[in-house]
Amino acid sequence: MTSSGRVVIFDTDGTLMDGRHAVIDAVAEALIATYEHFELPVPAIDRERISLAMGLPSTTFFRAAFDAATVAAELRDAFASEFEVLSVRAEVAALRRGESQLYDGAQETLTALRERGHDLALFSNASEPYFQAVIEVHGLERWFSRTLSLEFAVRRRLARHKTGMVRHLARGYADVVVVGDRVHDIEAGRALGARTIGCRFGFGEPDELDRADWTIGDLREILALPLDVAGRPGTNDAREEARG
Asked: 170 in a domain, yes or no?
């Protein structure tokens, strides 16, 4: 690989794939099972809390997705660990049942980017088993030459956070673009001088994407962006860039 190439690094959940239904249902199911495992009263499951936690690193997610006040302080570490094990198992099963889907235009966009000569990489804060199931179920190896989950990166001492993951995936490339739906994706890209694309249709709140170089409402809008032109654009609206 030469240093003159370009890589477009995509986040996974909320960017390429809509796993909301599969994940929220699986996590809610696992949370109930975790309360029962510890013989604790099962509170009303707050699906909004689970939804808001999506996109966080897995170690943070499995603490943020339940109300800590419902679990005694001395049990919380063990509770979160058991919750993670049961959740990942349920999430992978949901993926294999076909309860997730790529966003409209994802395959078309990825194919076009590859045809234009861009290398593609994929990263995620999710657990390694979940991440690999997503890749397998949706055949993402067709497009992505590099993939990395945070769990794998930490275990192999490749990275400890999303910025480190982007740095690892971008190694050897002169030009880097990061596509994501949460502020952590945008910040990771900008920290390394990459151009960034914020996806308004994902899990993040609108203001999370304020610092993105462009924002898009459909993955196909990426194809109208001047990715071949080096340097940071002066607007973050993909439609204005396309008209220019």
From this structure: yes
50 shares a domain with 11: no
Domain with 60 in it: 20-96
Same domain, 82 and 202: no
Same domain, 179 and 125: yes
Same domain, residue pair 75 and 189: no
Structure-token pair, residue 143? 């497009």
Confidence of residue 231 (pLDDT cuts 50, 70, 90): low
Supply the DSSP string of 138-188, one letter for each residue.
HTGGGT-SEEEEHHHHHHTTS-SSHHHHHHHHTTT-SEEEEEESSHHHHHH
Which segment of 74-78, 130-134, 177-181, 228-232 scores lowest on mean pLDDT? 228-232
Which CATH number covers residue 169? 3.40.50.1000
pLDDT of residue 106: 98
Helices vs. strands in the chain: H and E counts, helices first:
10, 8
Residues 177, 175: Cα–Cα separation, whole Å: 7
Phi, then psi, of 197 in degrees rounded to 5:
-125, 120
- Spatial neighbors of 76 by CB under 8 A, at least 6 apart, are 63, 68
Mean pLDDT of 6-21: 92
CA gap 142, 1 in Å, rounded: 19
Confidence at residue 3, expressed as pLDDT on a 0 to 100 scale: 42
Residues 172 and 185 placed together within one structural domain of the fold: yes
The SS3 of residue 197 is strand
Q: How many domains does the chain have?
A: 2
